[in-house]
User: Which sequence fits this backbone?
């Protein structure tokens, strides 16, 4: 990208460098969510011995799913744009995998949600998290840096008029 270390990077090069970590985390998060989903589906549909513990099994997989889904939120808590990008990439990957899982687990979309609903719901959640992080950052900035106009010293002539 940059051959000369003294060369100033262009805006596109800088944006490319900063977006790669969020893209990687989004890819890894999407793959991890997919693995958790497939593990949960296989455990629920292929192991009849676990049927007695269905509530506990589902709670464990839901907790693991939530922890994995929170990775972009926690990693980019101070950078809402990257949080949203990473979360949306993970959402798209998960929605595609969920759609493909519906081919193998035939009644998956009738019992739960359609892939489009999953994509929209996850995009809304990541969007709300990013908006909340942004608002929190603005509030904390306003608390630590009060909004006051700077006062300039009055001129000598203005002091004499009073």
Assistant:
């Amino acid at each position: 990208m940059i051959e000369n270390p003294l060369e100033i990077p262009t805006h596109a090069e800088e944006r490319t460098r900063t977006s790669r970590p969020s893209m990687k985390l989004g890819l890894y998060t999407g793959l991890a969510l997919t693995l958790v989903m497939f593990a949960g589906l296989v455990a629920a549909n292929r192991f009849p011995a676990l049927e007695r513990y269905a509530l506990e099994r589902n709670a464990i997989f839901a907790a693991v799913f939530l922890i994995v889904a929170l990775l972009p939120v926690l990693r980019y808590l101070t950078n809402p744009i990257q949080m949203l990008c990473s979360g949306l990439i993970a959402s798209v990957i998960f929605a595609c995998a969920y759609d493909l899982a519906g081919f193998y687990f035939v009644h998956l979309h009738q019992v739960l949600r359609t892939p489009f609903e999953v994509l929209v719901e996850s995009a809304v959640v990541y969007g709300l998290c990013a908006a909340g992080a942004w608002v929190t950052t603005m509030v904390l900035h306003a608390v630590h840096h009060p909004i006051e106009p700077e006062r300039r010293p009055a001129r000598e002539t203005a002091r004499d008029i009073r």
About this structure: DSSP finds seven helices and no strands in the chain. Residues 112 and 118 are 10 Å apart (CA to CA).
